[in-house]
Amino acid sequence: MSYRPGSSDPNVIAEVFRRGAYNLRDYPSRGAEIVSLLSRHALLDERPLIVDAGGNIGATAVFFSMLYPTARIVSIEPDAQNFELLVKNTEGLDVRCLNGAVSSEPGNAKVTDPGLGFSGLRAERVVGGQLGAPCYTLNQIYAEESDGKVWPFLVKVDIEGGEADLFQANTEWVAQTPVILIELHDGLLPKAGTARPFLRCIADQDRDFLSHNDICVSILNRLD
């Protein structure tokens, strides 16, 4: 993979490939069910849809392409420099790259650098804003990718506190998504309550809630 030496890029790559942060095979209590779900859809010639929210330089998209070779992947990254590497690293793969941010509402987002490196850039939706990275909702992406042969499978969310906005409204997509992998950022943004909308959203849903390698995992209890 292409990366920037001396930046946060090597650590991002190591987290994904060496530490297995997003490897569902590390969840033995539900792993067999997930494999069975994928197999049933494969028999119907249906491909899993994976949304990579916070695509960074493409490490997670490449990892998911290797783990799920038939998957259709949509990777969203708001920063222009990260996005350039995302496109380069996913060239030749079935990955749709979007230079934008995920949000609860359409609009535009402002990208800011809090000094944490390329992996810590934040995108915040600006109400009424006309400039900046475009915002995409998950409902919108699901509608655009739905062609009868693609089914929602997994959403990975690592958006540096942007989960506070993403799970604030228009969360119909959550009930349609068997697996959600999310990194919460209350530790990074203390007292901001960025995890609260996510916790409220899933609290009343019939889902398991697991934790692994700093990743919170939400899995539908009915995988049929």
TrEMBL record:
Gene Ontology molecular function terms on file: methyltransferase activity
InterPro entries: FkbM_mtfrase (IPR006342), SAM-dependent_MTase (IPR052514), SAM-dependent_MTases_sf (IPR029063)
Domain Methyltransferase FkbM: 52-187
GO BP terms: methylation
Gene3D superfamilies (UniProt xref): Vaccinia Virus protein VP39
UniProtKB keywords: Methyltransferase, Transferase
Pfam families per UniProt: Methyltransf_21 (PF05050)
Stored SUPFAM superfamilies: S-adenosyl-L-methionine-dependent methyltransferases
Keyword Lipid metabolism: no
Record's keyword annotation contains Methyltransferase: yes
Highest taxon listed in the record's lineage: Bacteria
Protein's UniProt name: FkbM family methyltransferase
Species annotation: Fimbriimonas ginsengisoli
